[in-house]
Design a protein that fits this description.
Elements: E1 2-7, H1 17-20, E2 27-28, E3 31-32, H2 33-38, E4 47-52, H3 56-65, E5 72-76, H4 82-90, E6 98-102, E7 105-107, H5 111-120, E8 125-131, E9 139-143, E10 149-154, E11 165-173, H6 189-197, E12 202-206, E13 211-213, H7 217-229, E14 248-250, E15 260-261, E16 265-267, E17 272-273, E18 278-280, E19 282-284, E20 289-290, E21 295-297, E22 300-301, E23 306-307, E24 312-314, E25 317-318
Parallel strand pairs: 1-4, 1-6, 4-5, 8-12, 14-16, 15-18, 16-19, 17-20, 18-21, 19-22, 20-23, 21-24, 22-25
Antiparallel strand pairs: 2-3, 6-11, 7-13, 8-11, 9-10
Bound molecules: guanosine-5'-triphosphate (GTP).
Length: 324
């Protein structure tokens, strides 16, 4: 099978960081969000096609410099085509069936088992679903016998939500769904296309364990915690000469001699945390500097952010080059 990964969104909820960097390149537990998504794919996947748009050139460059287990090809949109338009634009050479993945979710899921369930039910589509307390920000499925999806409501009002089982952004589709998407314009697959496909057999696949949408600052840090707790943190550990038991992921060139750490921290490439500084539950991107005796808690620091000596940053998202 091949996989199509949607990675063309603007990431507005993670601004200002996403003004400079697409959210899928934000490191979580030591590697970019995108690479955690690719880690979910079975090793026999033949090819991954990235449907890019916003900041396509940065994603292209990163993927070329950091090869994955799979051959990866990018197909860029010249204007945003939405999820359905992106599928249509980049999906021409997909396998039948194919995996369709959002690039901003973290999960524990056996996608090969999901593909087997898809084949066994002779489904047109099989969509991973996750149960949440508040389904309002998501696409919500109504489920019938054998978990057949009987209705799908995108971002419903509470009274209109048919269940608490939401689209987890991981699915398997027969290639014929691409014929249901009009070419050459922006299309929301969830709002415009899905409804018309349900009668042809779309099934839910309930995820029993963790899932998160890493698209907001709070969820991003929560997603990082889940990844660390599941042992899926990459990179270094607490850097040499620093205090703390972690988990901390220090990427190449990060240094923090004399600093101390709480839990769940990623230090991106070439980050410097100076002596006496303290960092807890945060993500510091490439080249960020936390000066002496400063404190960073529950925050996302974009590339080259500088936190001045003795300053405290808590619960903030700071864009590239900001000074705090
Ligand atoms: P927000 O602006 O913060 O909502 O983030 P987003 O732009 O990523 O939107 P959302 O989280 O709803 O997108 C879900 C998935 O679809 C993500 O993997 C996006 O990258 C992807 N996506 C959204 N819009 C497009 C698009 O126009 N083209 C492509 N190729 N992918 C898209």
């Amino acid at each position: 099978m091949k996989a199509l990964v949607l990675i063309g969104g603007f990431g507005t909820r993670l601004r200002p960081v996403t003004y400079a960097v697409p959210k899928q390149l934000i490191p979580l537990a030591g590697q970019p969000m995108l690479y955690h998504v690719l880690d979910l794919l079975p090793s026999d996947v033949e090819e991954v096609v990235l449907a890019t748009g916003y900041k396509a050139e940065l994603i292209d460059a990163y993927v070329r410099a950091h090869p994955t287990r799979f051959p990866v090809r990018t197909v860029a949109e010249t204007e945003p085509l939405g999820t359905g338009g992106g599928m249509k634009n980049a999906g021409g050479a997909m396998s039948d069936p194919f995996y369709l993945l959002n690039s901003d979710v973290i999960a524990q899921v056996d996608l090969a088992a999901m593909a087997r369930a898809h084949a066994a039910k002779r489904a047109l589509g099989t969509m991973a679903l996750f149960e949440v307390d508040d389904p309002r920000p998501y696409g919500v499925a109504a489920l019938g016998p054998e978990d057949r999806i009987t209705a799908f409501v995108e971002k419903p009002e509470p009274k209109d939500a048919p269940s608490r089982w939401i689209n987890a952004g991981l699915s398997v589709w027969d290639r014929s769904v691409l014929d249901a998407i009009p070419p050459g314009r922006a299309v929301s697959f969830e709002r415009e296309t899905m409804g018309g496909l349900l009668a042809r057999g779309v099934f839910g696949y309930r995820l029993p364990s963790f899932w998160d949408d890493a698209g907001t600052p709070e969820r991003l840090l929560h997603a990082q915690q889940l990844l660390f707790d599941a042992g899926r943190g990459g990179a270094g550990g607490v850097p040499p000469g620093a205090l703390g038991s972690g988990p901390v992921a220090a990427m190449p060139g990060a240094s923090a001699r004399g600093a101390s750490f709480g839990r769940y921290v990623t230090l991106g490439p070439n980050v410097i945390v100076e002596p006496g500084a303290h960092v807890d539950n945060s993500i510091l991107m490439d080249g960020a500097v936390v000066e002496r005796e400063a404190t960073v808690v529950g925050s996302l620091l974009g590339p080259k952010v500088r936190v001045g000596a003795g300053h405290r940053v808590q619960g903030q998202v700071l864009g590239e080059g900001a000074v705090a």
